[in-house]
Write a structure and sequence with these properties.
The chain has nine helices and eleven strands. By secondary structure, it is of the alpha/beta class. The chain folds into two domains: about 90 residues, no CATH class; about 210 residues, 3-Layer(aba) Sandwich (Rossmann fold). A six-stranded mixed beta sheet has the order 5-4-3-6-7-10, with helices on both faces. The chain has a three-stranded antiparallel beta sheet with strand order 1-2-11. The protein starts with a strand and ends in a 6-residue tail after the last helix.
Length: about 325
Amino acid sequence: MTFSSPLLTVCAVIALMAWSLSFWRVFKKSEIVYPQRSVSKRSTTILRVVIFLLGGIAWLLISFSLAGPRESIGHAKSQVEANDIMFVVDLSRSMLAEDFKPNRLEVAKQQILDFIKLHPTDRIGIIVYAEKAFTLLPLTRDLDLISRTVRNQVKPGFLGGGTNIGDAIGLGVARMMHSQAKKRSMILLTDGVSIMGSMSPREAATEASNAGIRIFTIGIGGKKEARIPVNSKYGTRYQILPGGSIDIKTLGLVASLTGGKSFLAQDSSSLSRVFFTIDQMERGKVDAHTRILFKERYLYYLIWGVLILLAVEFMRTSLLRESL
C-alpha cells in the first residue's frame, strides 16, 4: 500500500489535538453542571476515558484516510504524439550548386532545421551519402544535438563522389528496423542519379516496404543550368551542371513502392512547401512511459472514522450529559 498525500495527515493530527483539548475542557469556562443520578464519579471517569479512546481511534482513521492510501492494481502505458523520421541527405558535390541561394545543400539544411522544430516529440536521425552511406546521427529526441549535427556536420567531401541512393536507403532500413514507433518514415533528398552501390534504389525500396517504412523523396534542382564552385590553383572557378539531372522516375518508384510520395523542388520556396506537406502527413503515437494504476482505499477509512466520531459525540451528549 502506498500514500498519495502523506503530508495531509498533519491536518488530521492538528484536529485531533484540538478535539482532545475540547474533550478534556482544557480551556472551557466554568459552568453549572447538574449532578448525575446513579452514576459514580469513578464510573464517569472510566466512561470518559473509553469515549476519548474511541474518539482518538476515529481521528486516527480520518488521518489515515487523508494520507490517501491506495493499492497498485496494474500498469498502463501512456502515449505521446511521435514518429521516427530518418533524413537521408545527398552530400555529392552537385549539392553545392548555386541555383538555390547560397546553394542547394544549405537551403536543404535550413529546411530540415525548420522541420525539426515542428516535431519536438519525434525521434529523428540523419544518414548522409555520396559514393558511400554513413549514419551521422541515430534516432534521437535530443533536438539540440540534432540541430548541432545538421548545422556543423552535414557537409560534403568525406564520402567520395557520385550518388549511392540504394545503399543509403538500405542503411536507413537497417537503422529503423527495430523502431517502436507506429509510423516510420524516411525523407530522402537528392539532386542526382544513383550510379553505384551494392543495392539498387528499387531493391532498397522493396526492403523498406517490407519493414513498413514510408519514403518521401525530394528531388532538388532548378530548371536551368546551375553552377558548381570548383577550387583550383587559379582560385574558385565554376563548373556548369546541366539541367534535368534528377532521376525523377526512380524517385517516384521508390516513393510509390513504400506508400510515400515524391516531390520536386526547383527553388527555395517550393522546397519549403514540400516540407510543409510532409509535416502534415506525419502524425502518429508511440509509447512514452508506463504509469501505475491504483485502487483508492481512503473512503473506507474515512467512513469508519466519521461514523465512530459521530457515535462519540452522541455518547458525550447522552451519557456524559455534555453540552457541546
